[in-house]
Design a protein that fits this description.
- The complex is a heterodimer of chains A (235) and B (109).
- Chain A is mainly α.
- Chain A has one domain: Cytochrome c oxidase, subunit III, four-helix bundle (Four Helix Bundle (Hemerythrin (Met), subunit A)), CATH 1.20.120.
- Chain A has a two-stranded antiparallel ribbon.
- The radius of gyration of chain A is 21 Å and the shape is globular.
- The termini of chain A are far apart.
- Chain B is mostly helical and 109 residues long.
- Chain B folds into two domains: 67 residues; 32 residues.
- Chain B is 79% helix and 0% strand.
- In chain B, helix 2 packs antiparallel against helix 3.
- Chain B is flat, with a radius of gyration of 22 Å.
- Classes of the chains: A mainly alpha (235), B mainly alpha (109).
- Chains A and B meet through helix 1, helix 2, helix 4 and helix 8 of A and helix 1, helix 2, helix 3, helix 4 and helix 5 of B.
Chain lengths: 235, 109
């Protein structure tokens, strides 16, 4: 099958009407896996939006005082109260893993197998660190502070259920991402994307486009954290 | 594997490192909003400003949306207006709920 030369197609808004008026495929030159990942991420955006809009609604409609996240998530370091310390470190860890993922995609397309694989592994370790810190945060809130989905010592009772649902759903995404990153690191080290070796689960041949699609998912996890950081922790 | 041997153009490493650095800087700024304990409208506008900057950089550069076909960019970004409409609806709803709660909880039955 010959590859479509998208450089010959119209660009911008002309390309927009051209693509949608075309038969067979709407997104010219976009691999189907990438289009599907984007559409999945769009649906995931709606789910996370519903969580965050529900948080907004609960917070704006309660007559009780909402717990102040700056104090709830503060840590005492060397006798000094540092606000949101762990959350800030988690943010930087996730951004770092997003950066290594972007570079992995780049080296994948340049067919630099080793570099790509090491960067995916670094991304996976970053994600694992994030999940580990989240586990620490959860256990501190559950066992030390006594936060429950139905009550907490800080203020409005709804706080706990929103905390567990939003960060839990995001943490699940990170965990799934970490599993796939480790699998893809192994596949890349083994050279699956150079030899076209068939996948164990899908039994399909793949190439370095798969790294970009995995990267889209991972960047999305980082993207969602940007919004959770802003609306849950900082607001 | 004909596709595999096709040379794909990639972006220079510099742009990724730049965006990476900028994301660090903007995250630090949004953390500083909390550190210096800004309150009220200043706090909210700064949080949203840095949030949108970071989200835009991640989507445009890291997720390559800047280089994608306009068709898929539009398919992905237009549904966001539905979310904004939903936000607007729920702001009105929550204000009404708060009003009725204030009326019946605080002012008594």
């Amino acid at each position: 099958m010959s590859e479509l030369d998208i450089s010959k197609l119209p660009k911008g808004s002309k390309g927009f009407t051209h693509d949608f008026a075309a038969d067979q495929t709407a997104f010219k030159g976009v691999p189907w896996g990438k289009a599907m990942m984007w559409i999945f991420l769009l649906s995931d955006t709606f789910i996370f939006s519903c969580f965050l809009i529900a948080l907004m609604t609960a917070r704006a409609s309660t007559t009780a005082d909402w717990p102040y996240p700056s104090e709830v998530f503060g840590l005492t370091m060397f006798g000094v109260e540092v606000p949101l310390l762990l959350i800030a470190i988690m943010t930087f860890v996730l951004i770092t893993s997003s950066g290594t993922m972007a570079l992995a995609v780049k080296y994948g397309y340049e067919r630099n197998r080793k570099m790509c694989a090491w960067l995916i592994l670094a991304t996976a370790i970053g994600g694992l660190t994030f999940v580990g810190m989240q586990a620490f945060e959860w256990s501190k809130l559950i066992f030390h502070d006594g936060v429950r989905p139905w009550s907490n010592p800080f203020g409005a009772a709804q706080f706990g259920s929103f905390f567990f649902m939003i960060t839990g759903f995001h943490g699940t995404h990170v965990s799934i991402g970490v599993i796939f990153l480790f699998i893809f690191a192994r596949k890349t080290f083994r050279g699956d994307f150079d030899t076209g070796r068939r996948g164990y689960f899908t039994s399909m041949k793949s190439d370095y486009k798969a790294i970009e699609i995995l990267g889209l998912y991972w960047h999305f996890v980082d993207l969602v954290w940007v919004f959770i950081f802003a609306f849950f922790y900082l607001w | 594997m004909e596709q595999n041997n096709k040379k794909t153009t990639t972006h220079s490493i510099g742009i990724y490192l730049w965006i990476w650095g900028l994301l660090f800087v903007f995250s630090t700024f949004s953390y500083l909003v909390d550190w210096y304990d800004f309150q009220g409208l200043l706090r909210w506008s700064l949080i949203v400003f840095f949030m949108l900057l970071k989200a835009g950089l991640i989507m445009a550069i890291f997720m390559h949306l800047y280089w994608e076909r306009w068709a898929i960019v539009n398919v992905l970004l237009w549904p966001m207006t539905a979310i904004m409409v939903f936000v607007g609806i729920m702001v009105a709803e929550s204000q009404y709920t708060f009003f009725t709660r204030a009326l019946f909880f605080v002012m008594g039955s």
